[in-house]
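Final report, closing paragraph on structural work. Over the funding period we assembled a curated collection of sequence-structure pairs, and we close with a single example.
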Amino acid sequence: MTTAFRYTQPLPPKSATGRVAEVYEQLSRDFGIDEPVTFVVLSSAPELLAATWALMRESLIAGPGSRTGKELAAFGVSQANQCPLCVDAHTVLLHATGDHALAERLARGQLPEDEEHARVLEWGKRTRVPSPASKPYPFPREQAPGYIGTALAFHFINRIVSALLTENLMPANAQHLRVVRSLAGRSLARTVRRPARPGQALALLDRTDPGEAPAWAGDTAVGPAYAALLRAAMVGADLLDAEDQAVVLERLRHWDGRHPGLGLEGFPDRRERPGARLALLAALAPYRITDEDIAAWRRPEHTDHCLVHLVAYGAFTAVDRIESALSRSTART
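Its predicted structure, as stored:
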């Protein structure tokens, strides 16, 4: 299992206690996968782990909207963010919904035959560009908490995965075989198709007020889950000085959704501002983080807890930029 982790060494899940153990238990029951590395990598920061799971559960799993539609949105987000592990995972989960033909069309690089599915997939891709959507959402307004929450959850998760995990969803990338994808999906089918009661992940969050929920979430559990993740991720800002924070926020203010060029023009030099560089890479191109970037920043006092928080801070600055644009778009529809 440890080969999945690039720069951290999480404790074995079987040794988990307290809130981390509670999250793993709920993950197993409601997601159908025991100890997924996507979440284990956050276990050194329990407040981040719980909030990330809460946003995903309350939007993708228990939120309004069809599971197939939200998986398509998450697939589109993951494609736009160039996160192959997450793309593969959503292909398997589409098999779990019973949409086998749709899953395999996507695996072959083809568009869905159903026009509604195609619009949802395209919407998911477009959310990477932080600008108000020019067309109505491809789902009913009352389903916005489920779809928008899912998109934002995976804009965050994609970045964590690309920064801190390898690309291997299964040993030897076995998920690239159709029969393996199908069998893995079928093994999750009962859990994926079982209705989940909204709000149950909120009990895992800090008891203090997480902050104001976004308007697009309405009165659903997605709102406090999103607010809790924002609060937990912003803790990582304390690992940067004021000048480094300003560098990160100024670059994000002008970000247009494009992936950086090969030369990473405009990124701070790792010798001068290693923390700001690492946070910006996590936001805009987490798959470009190198051993040298980690080594330039890491000091004896920088634990796995610190690294996870710094990456989460960078990742969420991009999520926050996207969320602001989606909020403006929601207000106009």
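The mean pLDDT is 93. The chain has 14 helices and no strands. We thank the funder for supporting this effort.
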